[in-house]
Amino acid sequence: MEVKQGFPRKIGYGKVVLTVGFYDGIHRGHQKIIKEVVQEAKRRGMRSCLVTFRPHPSEFFRGRVLSLLTTWEEKEEILKGLGLDLVLVLRFTTHLASLSPEAFLGKLLRSLELDELIVGENFVFGHERQGNIQWLQENQNRFRFRLRIVPLLKVQGEKLSSSLVRQWIERGEIEKATQGLGRYPTIIGKVIGGKKRGRLLGYPTANLESDPKKLLPPSGVYAGRVNLKGRFYKGMINVGAKPTFEDSSFGVEVHILKFGGHIYGHTIKIELASRIRSVAEFTSPRELSRRLEADRMRTEKIFDGTKPSRENHHV
Questions:
Q1: Mean pLDDT confidence for 127-137
Q2: CATH: 3.40.50.970, 3.40.50.620, 3.40.50.300, 3.90.660.10. Which one for 2-159?
Q3: What is the pTM of this model?
């Protein structure tokens, strides 16, 4: 997969099948669109292409950082796994936001030999979201491309969207988020030094320094898997403070079951499977240790009989 910043020169790219969007999370609805783009491009001997943006348009308009379902590194990895040929990353600026639908499409057509545009039924673009499906249908012959509209997927009776998946994660509804994403929600971070309290309790933990733009679930204890160099281990993940030790600092730490290696400085990926409980203050470290043992048993039970997840596995 080739990644380009900005609008490239048209020479050498040939005809493309295209989709456009920020695609935060690349949930199952996004995957359905992208797979149609890839399949159609292969069928017709063309290149599959996605045009996306940085930063998120909502972040640009609101003037504050938006917590993302997928960081750019995660998004790039997932898109590569889906088989796209080309990704164009456009910087979302005042100029880009001011472009009318005609002007934006004109810039695209000066860069890409667009044959077919495939988008979801709720797709909007251009200044003040003036471009929509109706506008595209009325103008596709004028701009000489074909248009394909992909219906939105529904999950538990609700139309699937990045906003819906974000709500599930913010509420700690990990199973729902997993169903919408088609994979476990993830936390990726570098292992940094901690206060080593877990080691004294018999449950050593790896403290993670995650991307500040990454959306994290609410405080609590979670069951999950930890990806270490392509191998997966069961893990107990604590998100939030450590009230038993009067530590109110927010953080992410994971106890990796049946693992005793040294991983300081390594980057690991955590896949969240289920929320076990809320963060609680215990009367003593011994009481906390007993609760951690119960958490470990529940984590083991959650994963009993399940198949290991695979890197770049998509629904």
A1: 94
A2: 3.40.50.620
A3: 0.88
